[in-house]
Amino acid sequence: SQPAAAPAPAATVSGKATAATPSGAAGRSEAGKKAVTCDGANTKTVAAPLSRPVNHMLLTVTNTGSTACHLYGYPAVRFGEAQSVPPAIEESKPQAVVTLAPGESGYSSVNLSAADGSGGEGRTEKSLTVYFQGATPGRNPSAGATPALPAKGVWIDDSLKVTYWQSAMDDAVIW
């Protein structure tokens, strides 16, 4: 008789999101509670401009709830009174949904403007709302987040785009 297969290892690293779950535990946290969708009510979102790559901002979402939450797809970001949200960089799509245990963080990079000025007309924006996608693409949970931007605002242009949510900061900022 063959030995029983060991469960798949969980990709749990201190301070990093979990992308894999043990066999049979998909969608459940350590306490056995069903994971929920991350949104503005169960997370803290921080927007921080990056010095490199130039014209980029990092969104960091930390699970402040008591159960795991899923970061589906990519953030729908709205600067100021914009009528639409920027597209995602399709090449940044991870192989699995990013799942955050309580206290863990997920990341997305926002390409604010073209470094060479080719992004069309630009403007300074001083407010940002981050909406989270649900399991069904295009559906947003009820609560968005409004992270603070620098007092001087951020410069954006028509080349604005975002990465999909990533479990590691390095994976978000390479785009």
UniProtKB/TrEMBL annotation:
<feature type="domain" description="DUF4232">
    <location>
        <begin position="38"/>
        <end position="166"/>
    </location>
</feature>
<feature type="region of interest" description="Disordered">
    <location>
        <begin position="1"/>
        <end position="33"/>
    </location>
</feature>
<dbReference type="InterPro" id="IPR025326">
    <property type="entry name" value="DUF4232"/>
</dbReference>
<feature type="compositionally biased region" description="Low complexity">
    <location>
        <begin position="1"/>
        <end position="11"/>
    </location>
</feature>
<dbReference type="Pfam" id="PF14016">
    <property type="entry name" value="DUF4232"/>
</dbReference>
<protein>
    <recommendedName>
        <fullName>DUF4232 domain-containing protein</fullName>
    </recommendedName>
</protein>
